[in-house]
Design brief:
By secondary structure, the protein is an alpha/beta fold. It is globular.
Length: 204
């Protein structure tokens, strides 16, 4: 229950600095949660929402793992598929949204939506005050730390929550999956069947 109390204080806004004895906090307003299988208690009446942004080009089993676990912690999870990206996406926004919706259809409290512009503006427009980001390795941390700090500067009322994937997904990235698929490799262990089929069609 102590871990849940710390998470509740963080996402409920009653304690801006969770105790370091329960969770490692690399910086104020950034919470790192590493427990892979937590069941959300049922004694909370208020709706708590979270946004998980990304390009999802394509959505992988690593993404799905984080989203499923976020869905057990929050009442409502919005998977925000970015339209504006510095990357040259393999799939257009509509396809990425459609694939994510198909892969996540079994999660009743998860919604997939496209967005353009600043993430903090999207979060404000949807009334969401928590952004989730995934940390696969130490190499991700510096960039994610900068993003969290910039978002905090632009929108002090919005918090950033970090989750680490289950260890069997820690090495998976969309870019690696695309490269394997482009070279004719088998990506069935890394993505859902619908995504595998879309990649096969894209690179045939």
């Amino acid at each position: 229950m102590f871990l849940w109390n710390e998470i509740d204080r963080f996402i409920g806004g009653t304690d801006q600095h969770p105790s370091h004895t329960a969770l490692a906090c690399p910086a104020p307003h950034a919470l790192v949660c590493c427990a892979p299988k937590l069941s959300r208690p049922s004694d909370h009446a208020s709706v708590r929402s979270l946004v998980y942004p990304g390009t999802f080009d394509p959505i992988t089993n690593g993404h799905s793992d984080l989203i499923q676990r976020a869905a057990s912690l929050f009442d409502h999870v919005v998977v925000a598929v970015a339209h504006d990206t510095a990357k040259a996406p393999t799939f257009d926004t509509g396809t990425r949204v459609a694939l994510a919706r198909e892969v996540l259809a079994h999660l009743g409290n998860v919604e997939v939506r496209p967005f353009a512009g600043l993430l903090v503006d999207f979060a404000r427009a949807t009334g969401i005050s928590v952004i989730m980001r995934g940390l696969r390795a130490v190499s991700d941390f510096e960039y994610e730390f900068q993003l969290a700090g910039m978002n905090r500067r632009m929108a002090p009322e919005i918090e950033t929550l970090f989750l680490t994937p289950a260890e069997q997904y820690a090495y998976i990235s969309s870019s690696l999956v695309r490269e394997i698929a482009r070279l004719g490799g088998d990506v069935s262990a890394f993505v859902a069947p619908a995504v595998q089929a879309a990649l096969r069609e894209r690179f045939r």
